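Final paragraph of the annual report: two paired records, presented back to back.
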Amino acid sequence: MDAADWDRRYEGAELLWTAEPNRFLVAEVADLPPGRALDLACGEGRNAVWLAERGWQVVGVDFSPVGLNKAKALARARGVAASQIDWVLADLTQGDGGWEPEPPGFDLVAWMYFHPSPEVRRAILGRAVAALAPGGTILIVAHHLDNLEHGWGGPPYPEILLVPEVVAAELSDLGATIEKAETVLRPPREDKQEGERAAIDALIRARRTL
């Protein structure tokens, strides 16, 4: 899906997703002191806003202007100061990884349900790790390949779904130290249909050591 496709998905007045942050982001960031955070493919901004509310200085990047407008509205509604989040309109999938953060030195890079092609993913991973300060954390949570047959939701394209061990190996090649590479489950939605299964996600957490 390109930016125009996402604009159409986001065009309604209501949030496409919940305003609450991702459960795995909350759990994994709880032990980190607030610093500078980069939220890649931030969409409607729920994770970026949550981080800002907890004292992080955030850069949120997305290629959908409609999504970013809703993110800004969410931040205002939650009382987050405009100076706390820098919203950047950019396509991360272009060229060899697209937009590059300046300056680098982020304490956290959040990659939440962002599914580029494997080639583009590797290029963006390189930029993401380079954007980290020494000791900084990258957290990746996305739909697992197993979700296609055994879970619910997510893209129906196996080539863009993640396997934790594969992404962990790619991060290791970039000099990151792997802290977690796990398969995790999300319970069915509150409005689930009878027999609906849990979603299967990949969670990878790594630290820049170089």
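The closing record of the year follows.
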Amino acid sequence: MALTLHVAESSPEAAVLVDGASIAAVGPYEDLAAVRPGARVRRWPGILTPGLLNPYGPELLEDTYHPDPREADEFGTEPITGARARALFRADPSRHGASARRGVQRMLAHGTVAIAGELRGRAAVDAVRRAGLAVGRRPESLPGPASFSPVPLVLLPPLKPGGPARFAVFDVPDRAALVRLGAATCVATVIDGRLVHRRR
């Protein structure tokens, strides 16, 4: 499989060389490009970081209804929570699967590569598995309330060679700006070497 070198303009010292589903190397872009001149290069604005862990898996994927764009006239486009979401799921249990898949897509669009929290329903479990999201441990104290861009953001451990190619790119100048502006600044999310989200 061809190597891919990901580099973000505000963090060229943290470029990532991807080989299939794994990270082959992490380091300054110029060094990696010199060692692997044949690698395909993907250039991004902003900074490249480990992806985010969203600790609200059950709340966002099982307790929230994510309307289909075709339902915008009836339900709007924003996630629906609480009693209204429960009523929608009771009225039509088949909504769970499509809603969970749309919820996962929203997570990917916010740089999420892992979730936490115990998923109870098969629809959400299947959506998470298909997307390749990792499942991690829930922090002892949760940032609240449930959000696709929780405060504070939970970054995964630093990227390292041999580890899974799982990271995100945010269109911000530095990590301080990412903390301030939140995960909606995500421009790309990579899971197991696959580009699973790219802002159009």
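The chain has a mean pLDDT of 95. This concludes the annual technical report; the extension proposal builds directly on these records.
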